[in-house]
Amino acid sequence: MGQGPHLRPDGKIRRIGAxxxxxxxxxPPPHQYAPPPFGPVKRKSRAPLILGVMAIAFVVFVGGxxxxxxxxxxxxxxxxxxxxxxxxxxxxxxxPAAGAKVITYTYEVVGSATAxxxxxxxxxxxxxxxxxxxxxxxxxxxxxxxxxxxxxxLVAQSNSERNVExxxxxxxxxxVVKEATSSGPFxxxxxxxx
Length: 194
Fold this sequence. Notes:
Blueprint (H helix, E strand, L loop, with lengths): L4 E3 L5 E3 L31 H43 L12 E10 L3 E7 L6 E8 L2 E8 L6 E7 L5 E9 L2 E10 L3 E6 L1
């Protein structure tokens, strides 16, 4: 048994290991507690801990954002390459079938003006050509293979300040496909078709 206070049969406290005649330490009055030996307990501030946790959370958040942006960038590059690859494997609508028939288109510009600036699609690669101060009537034949999607275009603008009339036409194998007329100073006529 350890040392400590015990009750005797007569109700008095005795210490084990102590003799009956040894003096007993004074007891505190009933219902009173001794003051703490070191004074009031001081709590440490939690601000450094909270700031540390917030700093770690911020670093993790920023790192996650950087990783996400990098991942999205890589997937966007991959998607762009996939689209480019897919598009390069599609058939070109401007490429005709083998042995396709050649069709002659004729561009014409007529009118009361003496000259005009003319712009037109000249070949299967859809290149444009411009003729400045073309004497009217003006005519140009171009040939394309059948089966092509051709956005044919002819634009004519008179170079006269007077009130004049100008007409553009696109003919396919001699038959008019598109025709437009405009009048006034520096009149512009536009023909487009396929």
